[in-house]
Write a structure and sequence with these properties.
The chain has 3 helices and 8 strands; from the N terminus they run H-E-E-E-E-E-H-H-E-E-E. It is α+β, with helices and mostly antiparallel strands and 160 residues long. The two termini are 20 Å apart.
């Protein structure tokens, strides 16, 4: 969790923008608590097919650590400045990837890595059938598919 305010975030974006791109980012910057796995985004509002350049803004995930924040801001600024020179682009464009490498910005969000879980269930019937699942199951509803006996959770493992 980052401990800076929206004003400090705006100052950080301006400082990184002038340092790396020699231009000012004259748009709004704010934290968005609704972002989950993405580090941030630059929003290009449209009216029909036209992008409203006066309404462009940047949103940053407040769940980022202070050490990850500058990298994510550089990533989002790269999106913005590639848009100014080339127009809309995609994450896997070669020039965008080259710019990220030059800036030392991450290609992916550090929040994107999800924890992988494995659940082992066992049948309470006489033959003790085993089931390995990626998701939890509702033990009140689900039964053994072979003999119809109830199931119990035997073990749960979380991998990163």
């Amino acid at each position: 969790m980052t401990a800076i305010s929206n004003g400090q975030l705006k100052a950080l974006v301006e400082r990184l923008s002038t340092t790396y791109f020699h231009l000012s980012f004259g748009h709004a910057v704010k934290f968005n608590n609704h972002l989950r796995s993405t580090g941030g985004r630059v929003v290009f509002p449209k009216s029909g097919r036209q992008i409203l350049e006066s309404k462009i803004y940047m949103e940053i995930n407040p769940k980022l650590d202070d050490k990850d924040l500058p990298g994510i801001v550089k990533h989002e600024l790269a999106h913005y400045y590639i848009y100014l020179h080339k127009g809309l682009h995609r994450e896997n464009d070669r020039d965008f990837q080259a710019l990220l490498k030059k800036l030392g910005a991450p290609r992916y969000s550090p929040l994107h890595t999800r924890q992988k879980s494995f659940y082992l269930y066992e049948c309470n019937g006489p033959q003790c059938h085993k089931y390995l699942r990626n998701r939890r199951i509702n033990l009140r509803k689900m039964r053994c598919s072979i003999d119809g006996a109830t199931l119990k959770l035997v073990s749960e493992r979380h991998l990163k």
